[in-house]
Amino acid sequence: MQEVVEEVKRESIRSLIADGKRADGRAFDQFRELTYETNVISTAEGSCLLHMGDTQILVAVKTAAGEPYPDSPNEGVLITSAELVPLASPDVESGPPLSSDKYIEIARVVDRSIRESKMIDFSKLCLEKGKYVIVVFVDIHTLDDGGNLIDGATLASVIALTACRMKKWELKDGKPVAAEQTQPLPITRVPIACSVAKFGEALLVDTTHEEEIGMDSKIVFGLDEGEHIRAMQKTGSGPWSREQIKAALELARRTVSDLRKKLKLEAVA
Amino acid sequence: MEKPKQLIVEGKRLDGRALNELRPITMKVGPLKRADGSSYVEWGRNKVMASVYGPRETHPRHLQESDSAILQVRYNMASFSVEERKRPGPDRRSTEISKVTREALMPALFLGFYPRSSIDVNIEVLQADAGTRCTGINAASLALADAGIPMRDLVVAVAAGKIDGQVCLDLEKNEDNFGEADVPVAVMPRRRNITLLQMDGDLSPEEFSQAMDLAMGAVDHLYEMQRSALMEKYRG
């Protein structure tokens, strides 16, 4: 039964878009209304609750002292995880976290934009070379899956990271301890992701959950302030031509530059 | 290994290749007897084997679709395939690669011919040296054709990237570790349809366009290699 309903939805969404329209009346290059609150979770060191149309994503940042990776002994560590909690969508079956490849992909693509843009200066997160560094955990909780989760999760993550007042980690008698004071993370720049979805010849930003049922596939672009590409990911199976990829990149650059102006996101350090 | 001072010396890379040159590649079709289709690809120091089983009954059953076959892909790195032993079994990286590989292969298959069934692709990386996902996609394409699965086209994969500020083709391990960007691409050659695109690093839009030029420029050569590997087995 569900398959039939999906097929009907798919057809109606595609024919609407072929007529140049979207179900919620937006233009193809128009983002849904974005609002957010920071530091809504007092047990986390930084957090952001983001509303993007019907999508609600909560990202929390916590730090801990831990071991560095052997190939970067004097750099802090970033660990990004994404969980779709069962309250977010009827499609989620309860079970162990991170069960579906969709959520692993979300975490890895958000991580890629943050890491490859060098958003956080990890060299400032070393306590003792080769032994203790600060580990930054970014935990993405999708509360309501209204679509375009990667863009939303990236945005909520970078906002939570910029708002973060992390524990001040110090070495006492050779062991890491958290002092009373807090300090901001060493943020150098702020990446923003924009996914462009393809429906035949049409390219759309900020797809809703319903639209995503009907799309061919999408490409996520993680862009820095200089509009350099730091991360890319095609997700979904529909193929692309070179010209469409070029047009999608242009659309993503325009969209990200608008978002930057609107949100006034800047590096604090 | 420490970061080398230069990755490009007098226009040549550390392994002697030109910027637009692929590593040496060999492709074999049908090395496995039990599988419905199989292949073995060596790409530089990468050694990758692929098998295809199916169309066959879908496991787990609830995944089956009433109007088409499903494609299941498992990309796996052997514990001994990397310098420092890898913990066996799937991790987040291999789960992601399995997903994007499935999405790269799906457009080439007529899955609608086999309702309710499953086509299972296994990609086993025996020795890794950067570029395993592309090697795996080429291997999977050959194994699918070997299994006699009806296909719109073969799927060819290759990466471009940037080292020492220069865009180049097919990064090997040190170039991947110490370079500035990596862009794996999969293509159905006949209509130049791009079925996989990923990137990490730092590229300006112009550099990205150059990287795509290089990757697309290698497609015909790889397509020809896949075709002759298949001919080798089936022409007898």
Structural write-up:
The complex is a heterodimer of chains A (269) and B (236). Chain A has one domain (2-263): GHMP Kinase, N-terminal domain (Ribosomal Protein S5, domain 2). Chain A is built from 5 helices and 12 strands. Chain A has helices at 2-18, 101-116, 149-163, 209-214, 242-263; strands spanning 34-38, 46-52, 55-66, 77-84, 126-128, 132-144, 165-172, 175-184, 192-199, 202-205, 217-223, 229-235. In chain A, helix 2 packs across helix 3. The longest helix of chain A is centred in the C-terminal third of the chain and has 22 residues, at 242-263. Chain A is elongated, with a radius of gyration of 20 Å. The N and C termini of chain A lie far apart (54 Å). Chain B is α+β, with helices and mostly antiparallel strands. In chain B, strands 3-4-5-7-6 form a 5-stranded mixed sheet. Chain B has one domain (8-234): 2-Layer Sandwich (Ribosomal Protein S5, domain 2), CATH 3.30.230. Chain B has 5 helices and 11 strands. In chain B, helix 1 packs across helix 2 (132-146). In chain B, strand 8 and strand 9 (166-169) form a beta hairpin. Classes of the chains: A alpha+beta (269), B alpha+beta (236). The interface between A and B is large, with 37 and 35 residues.
Poorly predicted ranges of chain B: none
CATH class of chain B: Alpha Beta
The total of beta strands of chain B comes to 11
Strand content of chain A: 25-35%
Shape-level CATH architecture of chain B? 2-Layer Sandwich
Radius of gyration of chain B: 18 Å
How much helical structure, as a percent, in the residues of chain A? 25-40%
* Percent of sequence in beta strands of chain B: 25-35%
